[in-house]
Amino acid sequence: MTQLDVKILDDRLKDNLPEYATPGAAGLDLRACLDGTLELAPGATVLVPTGIAIHLDNAGLAAMILPRSGLGHKHGIVLGNLVGLIDSDYQGQIFVSVWNRGNAAFTIQPMERIAQLIIVPVVQVTFNLVNEFSESERGEGGFGSTGKH
Ligand SMILES: O=c1ccn([C@H]2C[C@H](O)[C@@H](COP(=O)(O)OP(=O)(O)OP(=O)(O)O)O2)c(=O)[nH]1
Questions:
Q1: What is the pLDDT, as a whole number, of residue 106?
Q2: 72 has a pLDDT exceeding 80
Q3: I need a surface site. Which of 28, 38, 85, 115 has the fewest CB within 10 A?
Q4: Is 85 labeled as ligand-binding?
Q5: Is the CATH number 2.70.40.10 carried by domain 5-121?
Q6: 85 Cα: distance to centroid of ligand 1 (angstroms)
Q7: Whose CA is nearest to atom 13 of ligand 1?
Q8: 79 CA closest ligand 1 atom index
Q9: Which atom of ligand 1 is nearest the CA belonging to 93?
Q10: What DSSP string runs through the chain?
């Protein structure tokens, strides 16, 4: 396992750091560090603090905030930015943009697991300017060019 520096910005997380729910889990659950309940009307978006800051300190890593599938599928609770991207040099608190895309109001409970964080490898590139690419099987075909369906 890779070690990651983390700061706790909310005392309620002291014995409750984000963790993997099972040994094979990819995501670390992020909690809504709210003082009280927060009702999110249909269509509304709110920025929710998670009480933690991380420092990936390696341009070869990034963290991504993803919705929790249960909340998304059952309640329409997803992310206002669809996916949140945490840069390796970001040291501030992680916030979750929570979007209620459903038809009913949803009440977020304090410390509820509201989203999940995955750590992913990233490849940084430099551009090599060319006039022509070397040939590939696909070429410029896209958007359904490979078949009828
Ligand atoms: O859901 C998110 C998305 C981003 N961030 C933090 C970490 C990230 O490194 C920083 C900047 O995010 P991004 O680059 O996506 O935002 P931007 O709108 O391009 O702003 P900036 O000019 O700060 O890069 O904000 C979060 O806490 N939650």
A1: 98
A2: yes
A3: 85
A4: yes
A5: yes
A6: 6
A7: 85
A8: 1
A9: 27
A10: ----EEEE-SGGGTT----BSSTT---EEEE---SS-EEE-TT-EEEEEEEEEEE---TTEEEEEE--HHHHHHH-EEETTSSEEE-TT--SEEEEEEEE-SSS-EEEPTT-EEEEEEEEE---------SSPPP-SSTT--SSTTS--
